Amino acid sequence: MTPLACRAMLAALIMTVPVWARAQQTDVTGRPALPLRLAPETRATLERLIDSVRTVGLPVNPLFDKAAEGVLKGADDRRIVAAVQSLVRELGSARSLLGSASNTALLTAVASALHAGVSPADVRRLVASSTGDADGHLLTTAIVTLVDLVAKRVPPTAAVSSLAELMSRRVPESQYLALRSEVEQDILAGRAPDVAIADRTRARVRALDEQPGAADRALPAKRPSTPR
Questions:
Q1: Do 180 and 219 touch, CB atoms closer than 8 A?
Q2: Which of 75, 100, 127, 228 lies 20 to 30 angstroms, CA to CA, from 108?
Q3: Nearest residue to 113 (alpha-carbon basis) of 169, 160, 66
């Protein structure tokens, strides 16, 4: 990869991290802290909520991030509390879909997907395509890509079909980033989002199939059951 391409990829990755997450507020010990602008009663409500979430083993950092996002966007305290409560429910749903072993990044990505309108069935479909992804890193990448595509008006089911195809082929993270860029360019050029994702996925799959060792990277097909 050329230095220019590397810089472009780095810039794209940085842009996927929200500003409010990159500027998370911390206390004197370096731990996440609620924004100072919040009223005392709001802080007390959020602290109780965060303590209850911590007790059940869900990650709490995303809740601090969500409060910081609300302050950054100028939301009032009532809306900030409602947004944090909504995220708690979404994290709980994500845990139900993924199981207790899920890492924070994956749980947060799934919660974001659910918030964006992706159905639990579509999330399960991606999870089922992630065989061999022991640490959940590629699944997290695929779901972050899904959220980005849905934000660009790609229908969730169409996006999931494309991403499941890539996951079944165990492609590296760069392939997801490239797909996002290609689909965005097509949409900006006036193509329908569902057509853009379908065409770009077909082209990418053809290119993958033409590479040496493509058959070894693909997941083995399930053996047909023996007739009785």
A1: no
A2: 75
A3: 160
What's the whole-model pTM score? 0.76
* pLDDT tens for the 228 residues of the chain, in order: 444 444 444 444 433 444 434 445 665 445 788 999 999 999 999 999 999 999 999 999 999 999 999 999 999 999 999 999 999 999 999 999 998 667 899 999 999 999 999 999 999 999 988 877 767 889 999 999 999 999 999 999 999 999 999 998 888 899 999 999 999 999 999 999 999 999 999 999 998 888 766 545 444 444 344 444
The domain in which residue 160 lies consists of: 119-218
Using the 3D structure, point to which of 115, 132, 166 is the last residue of a domain: 115
Q: Identify any residues that bridge with 26 across adjacent strands, giving them in sequence order.
A: 32
Domain boundary among 115, 146, 165: 115
Helix, strand, coil shares of the chain, percent, nearest 5, are 70, 0, 30
